Sequence to fold (335 residues):
Amino acid sequence: MNDVDVSVVVCVYTEDRWEDILAAVASVRAQSRPALETLLVVDHNQALLERLAKEYKETAEVRVLANAGPRGLSAGRNTGIAASHGGIIAFLDDDAVAERDWLRHFAEGYADPRVMAVGGRTMPIWASGHRPAWFPEEFDWVVGCTYKGLPEGRVRVRNVLGGNASFRRTAFDAAGGFATGIGRDGDKRPLGCEETELCIRLARARPDAVLLIDDRAVIHHRVPEVREHFGYFRTRTYAEGLSKALVARSVGADKGLESERRYTTRVLPAGVARGLRDALLARPGGAGRAGAIVAGVLTAAGGYVLGSLRARRGGATFTVVEIESAVRTEGGGPR
Fold:
């Protein structure tokens, strides 16, 4: 194993995204800095597993494997980590494509041995062809994209965002894998925050660890039409509150909500002010954006309160697993 080799993990779960999956893999294979391997981890879908295995049977650098853990994104990622051979493991969403220098910018960040994770910038591709006028950029995390309020350039952060991120392999040796019970499970309620919980846990295990976002590492993420509606916006912000409650229970509210305090006290009020200003100037969507920000905050707060109550009563749990790496079990690099 070479410490600078990059394995890319793409977790997939439905044949409905077949063309998106092929596009994601093609974008990895076209990188200016080639990946050591691409691992497609299939989440408990035998038909998709067989179809992908047939599609890539002649492609040595693409490996198709089944999620070895419980259903869901976190266990799929853990399966990919365990099976990979690179010193760096990058994650790409199955409905996203990476720009040509994506991996090159990731790899540059690891020149500093203290760096344990590097994330990138995720841009939305709206199904309708344009951003809905009411949809605030401050809430682009709702559709899995980089949101207004994140720092620009290459900067140190509390956590990276999971759909466009990379980690040094030793980060998982120090902190364990992604927690199951927090993240997404197919098309069920769109929970999240598993990467936040992991990054905070990593910082505790390795106090010297540096986590970065480099906004030159760009991917383009498809936003389906159903996610352009306020109903999904409300559902996703509520689920975020539920997830944040689990994270806060795991790592404490001081760290679990550290970035969120700045976001809600500085970024969102500024967004409301811009929306109201645009409404006064008769610009389209201004009032809608201001209203959506307020609604998003209230809905997320409601989810957080309910999630906290459930967590105290023991009704919501998650599990952190130690990853048995293929590098350790095989005693070397890829065969």
Notes: The chain is about 40% helix and 20% strand. The chain has a mean pLDDT of 89. Strands lie at 6-12, 37-42, 62-66, 88-92, 96-98, 115-126, 154-156, 164-168, 210-223.
